Amino acid sequence: MLIGSTSFTRRSVLAGMAAVGASSLIPAGVRAATDGSAIRPFHVHVPQAALDDLRRRLAATRWPDRETVPDDSQGVQLKVMQDLTHYWATQYDWRKAEARLNALPQFITEINGLDIHFIHVRSKHENALPLIVTHGWPGSVIEQLKIIDPLTNPTAHGGSAADAFHLVIPSIPGFGFSGKPTTTGWDPARTAKAWVVLMKRLGYTRFAAQGGDLGAIITEVMALQAPPELLGIHVNLPGTIPPDVAKALQAGDPPRADFSPDEKRAYEELQLAFGKRRAYAQMMATRPQTLYGLADSPVGLAAWIIDHGDGYAQPAASFTSALAGHTVNGHTAGALTRDDVLDDITLYWLTNTAVSSARFYWENKFSIYNAQNIDIPAAVSVFPGENYQAPKSWAEKSYHKLVYYNEVAEGGHYAAWEQPKLFAEEVRAGLRSLRT
Q: In the UniProt entry, which residues are flagged as the active site (predicted)?
Protein backbone atom coordinates (compact mmCIF):
# COMPACT_ATOMS: atom_id res chain seq x y z
CA MET A 1 0.00 0.00 0.00
CA LEU A 2 1.05 3.60 -0.46
CA ILE A 3 1.65 5.61 2.71
CA GLY A 4 2.33 9.25 1.94
CA SER A 5 5.41 9.24 -0.25
CA THR A 6 6.60 5.91 1.12
CA SER A 7 5.59 2.78 -0.75
CA PHE A 8 5.68 -0.51 1.08
CA THR A 9 3.90 -3.84 1.04
CA ARG A 10 2.53 -6.06 3.80
CA ARG A 11 5.82 -7.96 3.69
CA SER A 12 7.81 -4.80 4.47
CA VAL A 13 5.38 -3.88 7.24
CA LEU A 14 6.21 -7.25 8.83
CA ALA A 15 9.94 -7.09 8.07
CA GLY A 16 12.52 -7.12 10.81
CA MET A 17 10.27 -9.04 13.17
CA ALA A 18 12.75 -11.36 14.85
CA ALA A 19 11.85 -11.48 18.53
CA VAL A 20 14.88 -11.59 20.81
CA GLY A 21 15.00 -14.88 22.66
CA ALA A 22 11.70 -16.11 21.23
CA SER A 23 13.29 -19.07 19.48
CA SER A 24 14.05 -20.62 22.87
CA LEU A 25 10.30 -21.09 23.34
CA ILE A 26 9.97 -23.35 20.31
CA PRO A 27 9.82 -27.02 21.32
CA ALA A 28 13.00 -28.96 20.71
CA GLY A 29 13.11 -30.82 17.43
CA VAL A 30 11.17 -28.30 15.35
CA ARG A 31 13.56 -25.35 15.34
CA ALA A 32 16.16 -26.47 12.86
CA ALA A 33 13.96 -26.98 9.80
CA THR A 34 15.54 -25.52 6.67
CA ASP A 35 12.60 -25.90 4.28
CA GLY A 36 9.19 -24.20 4.28
CA SER A 37 8.32 -25.89 7.58
CA ALA A 38 10.68 -23.64 9.55
CA ILE A 39 9.17 -21.78 12.50
CA ARG A 40 10.35 -18.17 12.43
CA PRO A 41 10.14 -15.82 15.41
CA PHE A 42 7.90 -12.83 14.75
CA HIS A 43 7.88 -9.29 16.15
CA VAL A 44 5.43 -6.52 15.28
CA HIS A 45 6.57 -3.04 14.38
CA VAL A 46 4.35 -0.98 12.11
CA PRO A 47 6.20 1.86 10.33
CA GLN A 48 5.36 5.28 11.72
CA ALA A 49 4.40 6.36 8.19
CA ALA A 50 1.46 3.95 8.31
CA LEU A 51 0.20 5.41 11.59
CA ASP A 52 0.62 8.97 10.28
CA ASP A 53 -1.35 8.08 7.18
CA LEU A 54 -4.13 6.58 9.31
CA ARG A 55 -4.48 9.82 11.26
CA ARG A 56 -4.47 11.83 8.03
CA ARG A 57 -7.25 9.70 6.59
CA LEU A 58 -9.29 9.96 9.79
CA ALA A 59 -9.01 13.74 9.73
CA ALA A 60 -10.04 13.84 6.07
CA THR A 61 -13.20 11.74 6.52
CA ARG A 62 -16.18 12.91 4.47
CA TRP A 63 -19.20 12.36 6.66
CA PRO A 64 -22.72 11.43 5.53
CA ASP A 65 -25.85 13.14 6.78
CA ARG A 66 -27.16 12.24 10.20
CA GLU A 67 -29.54 9.28 10.38
CA THR A 68 -33.25 10.20 10.22
CA VAL A 69 -34.21 8.09 13.25
CA PRO A 70 -33.38 8.56 16.94
CA ASP A 71 -31.79 5.10 17.30
CA ASP A 72 -29.38 2.79 15.46
CA SER A 73 -32.04 1.05 13.36
CA GLN A 74 -30.49 2.56 10.20
CA GLY A 75 -26.96 1.57 11.20
CA VAL A 76 -24.12 2.88 13.36
CA GLN A 77 -25.10 6.39 14.39
CA LEU A 78 -23.18 9.42 13.12
CA LYS A 79 -22.31 10.72 16.60
CA VAL A 80 -20.94 7.33 17.63
CA MET A 81 -18.62 7.29 14.63
CA GLN A 82 -17.56 10.93 14.98
CA ASP A 83 -16.75 10.52 18.67
CA LEU A 84 -14.82 7.32 18.00
CA THR A 85 -12.92 8.88 15.10
CA HIS A 86 -11.91 11.90 17.17
CA TYR A 87 -10.52 9.62 19.88
CA TRP A 88 -8.86 7.34 17.30
CA ALA A 89 -7.12 10.26 15.61
CA THR A 90 -6.04 12.19 18.72
CA GLN A 91 -5.65 9.86 21.71
CA TYR A 92 -5.52 6.21 20.68
CA ASP A 93 -2.02 4.64 20.79
CA TRP A 94 -1.40 1.59 18.58
CA ARG A 95 2.05 1.14 20.10
CA LYS A 96 0.41 -0.13 23.31
CA ALA A 97 -1.23 -2.91 21.30
CA GLU A 98 2.12 -3.69 19.68
CA ALA A 99 3.73 -3.94 23.10
CA ARG A 100 1.09 -6.38 24.32
CA LEU A 101 1.56 -8.55 21.25
CA ASN A 102 5.35 -8.40 21.42
CA ALA A 103 5.29 -9.46 25.07
CA LEU A 104 4.06 -12.84 23.80
CA PRO A 105 5.94 -15.50 21.81
CA GLN A 106 4.80 -15.04 18.19
CA PHE A 107 5.85 -17.01 15.16
CA ILE A 108 5.33 -17.49 11.42
CA THR A 109 5.44 -20.81 9.60
CA GLU A 110 4.58 -21.74 6.04
CA ILE A 111 1.84 -24.32 5.50
CA ASN A 112 0.66 -25.27 2.00
CA GLY A 113 2.49 -22.29 0.55
CA LEU A 114 0.96 -19.70 2.92
CA ASP A 115 2.51 -17.96 5.91
CA ILE A 116 0.57 -18.66 9.10
CA HIS A 117 1.03 -16.35 12.08
CA PHE A 118 0.42 -17.67 15.56
CA ILE A 119 0.95 -16.97 19.24
CA HIS A 120 2.39 -19.91 21.16
CA VAL A 121 2.46 -19.81 24.95
CA ARG A 122 3.53 -22.92 26.83
CA SER A 123 2.38 -23.45 30.40
CA LYS A 124 4.88 -23.95 33.19
CA HIS A 125 2.77 -26.90 34.37
CA GLU A 126 4.14 -30.25 33.26
CA ASN A 127 0.97 -32.01 32.12
CA ALA A 128 -0.70 -29.07 30.38
CA LEU A 129 -3.09 -29.98 27.56
CA PRO A 130 -2.19 -28.50 24.15
CA LEU A 131 -5.07 -26.38 22.82
CA ILE A 132 -5.46 -24.50 19.55
CA VAL A 133 -7.87 -21.54 19.85
CA THR A 134 -9.30 -19.93 16.71
CA HIS A 135 -10.76 -16.42 16.50
CA GLY A 136 -13.61 -15.28 14.26
CA TRP A 137 -14.66 -12.24 12.23
CA PRO A 138 -14.44 -9.34 12.99
CA GLY A 139 -12.02 -10.63 15.59
CA SER A 140 -8.34 -11.48 15.51
CA VAL A 141 -5.74 -12.87 17.88
CA ILE A 142 -6.29 -9.67 19.85
CA GLU A 143 -9.69 -11.09 20.80
CA GLN A 144 -7.95 -13.90 22.70
CA LEU A 145 -5.22 -12.03 24.58
CA LYS A 146 -7.09 -11.84 27.90
CA ILE A 147 -7.55 -15.61 28.15
CA ILE A 148 -3.90 -16.55 27.66
CA ASP A 149 -2.70 -16.23 31.24
CA PRO A 150 -5.86 -17.73 32.84
CA LEU A 151 -5.51 -20.81 30.63
CA THR A 152 -1.74 -21.27 30.71
CA ASN A 153 -1.30 -20.21 34.34
CA PRO A 154 -4.54 -21.33 36.04
CA THR A 155 -3.13 -21.36 39.57
CA ALA A 156 -2.83 -17.57 39.41
CA HIS A 157 -6.51 -17.29 38.45
CA GLY A 158 -8.30 -19.56 40.91
CA GLY A 159 -7.73 -22.74 38.95
CA SER A 160 -5.73 -25.92 39.41
CA ALA A 161 -2.45 -26.89 37.79
CA ALA A 162 -4.33 -29.90 36.45
CA ASP A 163 -6.36 -27.50 34.27
CA ALA A 164 -3.38 -25.90 32.50
CA PHE A 165 -3.09 -25.57 28.72
CA HIS A 166 -0.32 -24.98 26.24
CA LEU A 167 -1.95 -22.42 23.93
CA VAL A 168 -1.59 -21.98 20.19
CA ILE A 169 -3.58 -19.03 18.79
CA PRO A 170 -3.26 -18.69 14.99
CA SER A 171 -4.45 -15.95 12.67
CA ILE A 172 -6.85 -17.36 10.06
CA PRO A 173 -5.51 -17.13 6.48
CA GLY A 174 -6.25 -13.64 5.16
CA PHE A 175 -6.52 -12.21 8.68
CA GLY A 176 -4.02 -10.21 10.71
CA PHE A 177 -0.41 -11.19 10.20
CA SER A 178 -1.10 -14.45 8.35
CA GLY A 179 -0.59 -14.51 4.60
CA LYS A 180 -3.35 -13.52 2.18
CA PRO A 181 -4.34 -16.35 -0.18
CA THR A 182 -3.78 -15.43 -3.82
CA THR A 183 -5.80 -18.37 -5.16
CA THR A 184 -9.07 -19.95 -4.15
CA GLY A 185 -9.33 -22.90 -1.79
CA TRP A 186 -8.44 -21.58 1.65
CA ASP A 187 -11.76 -22.57 3.19
CA PRO A 188 -12.53 -23.96 6.67
CA ALA A 189 -11.61 -27.51 5.60
CA ARG A 190 -8.17 -26.52 4.31
CA THR A 191 -7.61 -24.30 7.33
CA ALA A 192 -8.61 -27.10 9.71
CA LYS A 193 -6.06 -29.41 8.08
CA ALA A 194 -3.44 -26.65 8.33
CA TRP A 195 -4.12 -26.35 12.06
CA VAL A 196 -3.37 -30.05 12.51
CA VAL A 197 -0.12 -29.61 10.57
CA LEU A 198 0.74 -26.64 12.79
CA MET A 199 0.12 -28.52 16.03
CA LYS A 200 2.13 -31.53 14.89
CA ARG A 201 4.93 -29.24 13.71
CA LEU A 202 5.05 -27.81 17.24
CA GLY A 203 5.54 -31.32 18.58
CA TYR A 204 2.01 -31.92 19.86
CA THR A 205 0.77 -35.44 19.17
CA ARG A 206 -2.48 -35.06 21.16
CA PHE A 207 -4.41 -31.82 21.48
CA ALA A 208 -7.84 -30.17 21.72
CA ALA A 209 -9.38 -27.31 19.74
CA GLN A 210 -11.59 -24.35 20.66
CA GLY A 211 -13.45 -21.74 18.64
CA GLY A 212 -16.30 -19.28 18.38
CA ASP A 213 -17.82 -17.56 15.33
CA LEU A 214 -15.70 -18.52 12.26
CA GLY A 215 -13.38 -20.22 14.72
CA ALA A 216 -16.26 -22.52 15.66
CA ILE A 217 -16.69 -23.52 12.01
CA ILE A 218 -12.98 -24.33 11.66
CA THR A 219 -13.03 -26.22 14.96
CA GLU A 220 -16.10 -28.23 14.03
CA VAL A 221 -14.66 -29.04 10.60
CA MET A 222 -11.54 -30.32 12.38
CA ALA A 223 -13.85 -32.55 14.42
CA LEU A 224 -15.59 -33.79 11.27
CA GLN A 225 -12.22 -34.59 9.71
CA ALA A 226 -11.40 -36.40 12.99
CA PRO A 227 -7.60 -36.54 12.81
CA PRO A 228 -6.29 -39.07 15.35
CA GLU A 229 -4.39 -36.33 17.19
CA LEU A 230 -7.57 -34.38 18.02
CA LEU A 231 -8.92 -35.39 21.45
CA GLY A 232 -12.01 -33.19 21.38
CA ILE A 233 -13.38 -29.69 20.91
CA HIS A 234 -14.99 -26.82 22.80
CA VAL A 235 -17.19 -24.27 20.99
CA ASN A 236 -19.02 -21.18 22.18
CA LEU A 237 -21.09 -20.72 19.01
CA PRO A 238 -22.26 -24.28 18.43
CA GLY A 239 -23.84 -25.61 15.26
CA THR A 240 -26.93 -27.42 16.49
CA ILE A 241 -29.97 -26.63 14.32
CA PRO A 242 -31.63 -29.93 13.32
CA PRO A 243 -32.32 -30.35 9.57
CA ASP A 244 -36.11 -30.08 9.94
CA VAL A 245 -35.77 -26.91 12.01
CA ALA A 246 -33.33 -25.41 9.48
CA LYS A 247 -35.86 -26.11 6.73
CA ALA A 248 -38.64 -24.42 8.72
CA LEU A 249 -36.47 -21.36 9.33
CA GLN A 250 -35.68 -21.11 5.63
CA ALA A 251 -39.38 -21.30 4.81
CA GLY A 252 -40.22 -18.60 7.34
CA ASP A 253 -42.48 -20.88 9.37
CA PRO A 254 -43.53 -19.93 12.92
CA PRO A 255 -42.14 -21.92 15.87
CA ARG A 256 -43.59 -25.41 16.13
CA ALA A 257 -46.14 -26.12 18.83
CA ASP A 258 -44.11 -29.02 20.18
CA PHE A 259 -41.00 -26.93 20.85
CA SER A 260 -39.81 -26.78 24.44
CA PRO A 261 -39.41 -23.24 25.88
CA ASP A 262 -35.66 -23.17 25.19
CA GLU A 263 -36.17 -24.50 21.64
CA LYS A 264 -38.80 -21.82 20.98
CA ARG A 265 -36.45 -19.15 22.35
CA ALA A 266 -33.63 -20.36 20.08
CA TYR A 267 -35.93 -20.51 17.05
CA GLU A 268 -37.09 -16.92 17.57
CA GLU A 269 -33.51 -15.72 18.11
CA LEU A 270 -32.50 -17.37 14.84
CA GLN A 271 -35.44 -15.84 12.99
CA LEU A 272 -34.28 -12.41 14.14
CA ALA A 273 -30.65 -13.10 13.31
CA PHE A 274 -31.36 -14.47 9.82
CA GLY A 275 -34.00 -11.87 9.02
CA LYS A 276 -32.27 -8.68 10.15
CA ARG A 277 -28.66 -9.24 11.22
CA ARG A 278 -26.89 -11.18 8.46
CA ALA A 279 -26.63 -8.64 5.63
CA TYR A 280 -22.90 -8.11 6.21
CA ALA A 281 -22.30 -11.88 6.00
CA GLN A 282 -24.31 -12.20 2.79
CA MET A 283 -22.29 -9.40 1.21
CA MET A 284 -18.96 -10.94 2.19
CA ALA A 285 -20.10 -14.41 1.16
CA THR A 286 -21.15 -13.28 -2.31
CA ARG A 287 -19.29 -10.06 -3.27
CA PRO A 288 -16.24 -9.59 -1.02
CA GLN A 289 -14.13 -7.91 -3.70
CA THR A 290 -16.66 -5.10 -3.96
CA LEU A 291 -15.75 -3.86 -0.47
CA TYR A 292 -13.06 -1.46 -1.72
CA GLY A 293 -14.23 1.21 0.69
CA LEU A 294 -13.04 -0.87 3.63
CA ALA A 295 -9.49 -0.79 2.25
CA ASP A 296 -9.62 2.94 1.48
CA SER A 297 -11.42 4.46 4.48
CA PRO A 298 -10.59 3.62 8.11
CA VAL A 299 -13.93 5.06 9.20
CA GLY A 300 -15.73 2.91 6.63
CA LEU A 301 -13.87 -0.13 7.95
CA ALA A 302 -14.66 0.73 11.57
CA ALA A 303 -18.37 1.22 10.88
CA TRP A 304 -18.53 -2.10 9.01
CA ILE A 305 -16.87 -3.95 11.89
CA ILE A 306 -18.85 -2.23 14.64
CA ASP A 307 -22.17 -3.04 12.96
CA HIS A 308 -21.58 -6.74 13.54
CA GLY A 309 -24.40 -7.92 15.79
CA ASP A 310 -24.83 -10.27 18.72
CA GLY A 311 -27.75 -11.89 20.46
CA TYR A 312 -28.76 -8.61 22.06
CA ALA A 313 -28.58 -6.09 19.26
CA GLN A 314 -26.96 -4.80 16.10
CA PRO A 315 -24.51 -3.12 16.53
CA ALA A 316 -23.35 -5.64 19.11
CA ALA A 317 -24.33 -4.56 22.63
CA SER A 318 -20.84 -5.23 23.98
CA PHE A 319 -19.24 -3.05 21.28
CA THR A 320 -21.76 -0.25 21.86
CA SER A 321 -21.20 -0.27 25.62
CA ALA A 322 -17.42 -0.43 25.20
CA LEU A 323 -17.40 2.55 22.84
CA ALA A 324 -19.69 4.54 25.12
CA GLY A 325 -17.66 3.71 28.22
CA HIS A 326 -20.78 2.66 30.12
CA THR A 327 -23.56 0.09 29.92
CA VAL A 328 -25.99 0.77 27.05
CA ASN A 329 -29.52 -0.67 26.97
CA GLY A 330 -28.79 -2.86 29.98
CA HIS A 331 -26.06 -4.94 28.31
CA THR A 332 -22.57 -4.46 29.70
CA ALA A 333 -19.32 -4.56 27.74
CA GLY A 334 -17.80 -6.68 30.49
CA ALA A 335 -14.01 -6.49 30.19
CA LEU A 336 -14.20 -5.15 26.61
CA THR A 337 -12.93 -1.57 26.29
CA ARG A 338 -12.89 1.10 23.59
CA ASP A 339 -9.16 0.53 23.10
CA ASP A 340 -9.77 -3.22 22.69
CA VAL A 341 -12.19 -2.48 19.86
CA LEU A 342 -9.78 -0.02 18.25
CA ASP A 343 -6.82 -2.41 18.63
CA ASP A 344 -8.76 -4.93 16.56
CA ILE A 345 -9.99 -2.45 13.95
CA THR A 346 -6.53 -0.89 13.63
CA LEU A 347 -5.00 -4.33 13.08
CA TYR A 348 -7.38 -4.89 10.16
CA TRP A 349 -6.49 -1.45 8.80
CA LEU A 350 -2.71 -1.69 9.11
CA THR A 351 -2.56 -5.16 7.55
CA ASN A 352 -5.13 -4.22 4.86
CA THR A 353 -7.05 -7.43 5.52
CA ALA A 354 -10.66 -6.22 5.33
CA VAL A 355 -11.23 -7.75 1.90
CA SER A 356 -8.95 -10.79 2.29
CA SER A 357 -10.74 -11.72 5.53
CA ALA A 358 -14.12 -11.19 3.88
CA ARG A 359 -13.15 -13.72 1.21
CA PHE A 360 -13.14 -16.41 3.90
CA TYR A 361 -16.94 -16.03 3.94
CA TRP A 362 -16.96 -16.49 0.15
CA GLU A 363 -14.85 -19.63 0.53
CA ASN A 364 -16.95 -21.07 3.35
CA LYS A 365 -19.59 -23.67 2.46
CA PHE A 366 -20.29 -24.84 6.01
CA SER A 367 -23.14 -23.54 8.13
CA ILE A 368 -22.13 -21.95 11.40
CA TYR A 369 -25.54 -22.78 12.86
CA ASN A 370 -26.68 -26.14 11.46
CA ALA A 371 -26.03 -29.47 13.19
CA GLN A 372 -22.80 -31.12 12.06
CA ASN A 373 -23.09 -34.71 13.38
CA ILE A 374 -19.77 -34.74 15.21
CA ASP A 375 -18.58 -38.05 16.66
CA ILE A 376 -15.59 -37.00 18.78
CA PRO A 377 -15.95 -35.55 22.31
CA ALA A 378 -17.41 -32.05 22.26
CA ALA A 379 -18.08 -29.39 24.89
CA VAL A 380 -20.55 -26.53 24.44
CA SER A 381 -20.79 -23.28 26.39
CA VAL A 382 -23.88 -21.16 25.71
CA PHE A 383 -23.48 -17.47 26.54
CA PRO A 384 -26.64 -15.36 27.01
CA GLY A 385 -25.61 -12.70 24.49
CA GLU A 386 -24.67 -15.17 21.74
CA ASN A 387 -26.52 -14.95 18.41
CA TYR A 388 -28.73 -17.75 19.67
CA GLN A 389 -28.79 -19.85 22.81
CA ALA A 390 -28.43 -23.41 21.59
CA PRO A 391 -30.79 -25.78 23.46
CA LYS A 392 -29.24 -28.85 25.04
CA SER A 393 -31.75 -31.03 23.18
CA TRP A 394 -30.35 -29.78 19.85
CA ALA A 395 -26.74 -30.00 21.03
CA GLU A 396 -27.16 -33.65 21.97
CA LYS A 397 -28.27 -34.44 18.41
CA SER A 398 -25.39 -32.53 16.82
CA TYR A 399 -22.58 -33.71 19.09
CA HIS A 400 -22.89 -37.46 19.56
CA LYS A 401 -20.35 -37.42 22.41
CA LEU A 402 -21.42 -34.28 24.25
CA VAL A 403 -19.16 -34.29 27.30
CA TYR A 404 -20.15 -30.86 28.61
CA TYR A 405 -23.00 -28.39 28.17
CA ASN A 406 -23.53 -25.23 30.20
CA GLU A 407 -25.57 -22.06 29.94
CA VAL A 408 -23.32 -19.28 31.24
CA ALA A 409 -24.69 -16.36 33.27
CA GLU A 410 -22.87 -13.51 31.49
CA GLY A 411 -21.15 -12.74 28.21
CA GLY A 412 -22.01 -12.72 24.55
CA HIS A 413 -20.69 -13.33 21.07
CA TYR A 414 -17.23 -12.05 22.01
CA ALA A 415 -17.05 -14.16 25.16
CA ALA A 416 -13.25 -14.31 25.47
CA TRP A 417 -13.08 -10.51 25.20
CA GLU A 418 -16.13 -9.71 27.31
CA GLN A 419 -15.83 -12.30 30.06
CA PRO A 420 -12.28 -13.75 29.99
CA LYS A 421 -12.53 -15.21 33.51
CA LEU A 422 -15.82 -16.98 32.81
CA PHE A 423 -14.62 -18.04 29.38
CA ALA A 424 -11.45 -19.58 30.82
CA GLU A 425 -13.48 -21.40 33.45
CA GLU A 426 -15.76 -22.79 30.72
CA VAL A 427 -12.85 -24.03 28.62
CA ARG A 428 -11.28 -25.68 31.65
CA ALA A 429 -14.52 -27.37 32.67
CA GLY A 430 -15.50 -28.31 29.14
CA LEU A 431 -12.25 -30.05 28.28
CA ARG A 432 -11.42 -31.50 31.70
CA SER A 433 -12.65 -34.98 30.83
CA LEU A 434 -10.22 -35.19 27.90
CA ARG A 435 -7.24 -35.22 30.24
CA THR A 436 -7.91 -38.66 31.71
A: 213, 361, 413
